[in-house]
Amino acid sequence: MKPAEITDAAFETEVVKSDLPVLVDFWAPWCGPCKAVAPVVEELAGEFQDKIKFVKINTDENSAQANKLGIRGIPTLLFYKGGRELDRVVGYAPKSELKKRLDSLLSR
Amino acid sequence: MFELTLTQEAVAEAPKGDRYDLIIIGGGPAGFTAGLYAARARVGTLLIERGVPGGQAAVTNHIENFPGFPDGVGGPELGERMKEQAVRFGLEVAAADVSQVGLEGDLKVVHTSQGVFRAPALIIATGTQSAALGVPGERELTGRGVSYCATCDAAFFRDKTVAVVGGGDSAIDEALFLTRFVKEAVVIHRRDALRATRILQDRAMANPKIRFAWNSVVEAIGGHEAVETVTVRNVKTGERETLPVDGVFIYVGLRPNTAFLGDLVKLDDRGYIVTNEEMETSLPGVFAAGDVRVKGLRQVVTACGDGAIAAVNADKYLQEHHYST
Description:
The complex is a heterodimer.
Chain A: E1 4-5, H1 11-16, E2 22-27, H2 32-47, E3 53-58, H3 64-68, E4 76-81, E5 84-90, H4 95-107
Parallel strand pairs in A: 1-3, 2-3
Antiparallel strand pairs in A: 2-4, 4-5
Chain B: H1 8-11, E1 22-25, H2 29-40, E2 45-49, E3 62-63, E4 73-74, H3 75-88, E5 92-95, E6 98-104, E7 107-112, E8 115-119, E9 121-124, E10 128-130, E11 146-147, H4 150-153, E12 161-165, H5 169-178, E13 184-188, H6 198-206, E14 210-213, E15 216-223, E16 227-234, E17 240-244, E18 247-250, E19 254-256, E20 286-288, H7 300-320
Parallel strand pairs in B: 1-2, 1-9, 2-5, 9-20, 11-18, 12-13, 12-18, 13-14
Antiparallel strand pairs in B: 3-4, 6-7, 7-8, 10-19, 15-16, 16-17
Helix pairs in contact in B: 2-3, 2-7, 5-6
């Protein structure tokens, strides 16, 4: 399932104010590891459908949130719950690692 | 920067079973060259890679010294092409992390995050990973200004000031690359002369955006949401200085990825795998190729050579032990 692309302006409503926990995938078109992790995130989005919301932010077009959140490398995956960042993964990670973090996000 | 296009062949691979003639752990130049030679020899082969193809080559922007490319080649692009070439000849690839390797008689049993795979022959091509400085702030601020890959992260430092730690080819190469983005790059090196190849040294010295902090070591990296400072100590005078920087790029060496092997094969005292000229390890049927081996020169070109030799010898091993290939 393809995560929805959101903009800096939508971050507050889509991520911070979300009822469900959210995985935010910060990426850019020129980033190799971002392309490698994208299908993994898509698979997980399908598996965690209705339990966790998955969104993507293209940092080439939306740099404000990334800058504010101290993101200086991509891919960076942010794990949000109740309006707060609970976890973050920088760089490509295999599906098993990301699944572990998502399970943990649900149980907290 | 380059446009990454994955061809149909490069994407259409996945393990089709759990038993192979040969398993290759690691998808850098050594692993994929071994995979290419094995596939062309019609050896049923699975390559396991946990990240993007290319290994250390994939984290450098531009490779000028790999033969056949007068204008150089992009690191990630070279990795992708090596994978595509091997897959075209029938190599299977699994996206998985290897946790350990065991033995069941002659079979090598590879435990991964995507299941367990078995084969009578094994090539370990797991390469190395960047050494950390081990200073306060480094782990906490990784991805928040601390980086081990300029190619990956330079775009976040446009018109900013960054520190580059190290004095070898990687540090200088990447510092030069960073000058396309940053306002200033300070190279922090613990001696008063660089180890880098002469041509790189000359370019760095001539670049107005690069300055040097000689005889200096990093003591701490500071910042809250992101990197704000780096504290250095002069090893000759003992003087400390805190420099305002937006990023710290660390290139202080590489460590072999062999912890997962336990005592399966003989390692040297730094963890590199001991092999002979035929890439044979201390365990029959297990070969090693690339940066993970004890060797003099670690380059893409030597890794490829190792991969080819390991694959041909793995094939010979399989023939001699009466397995059909």
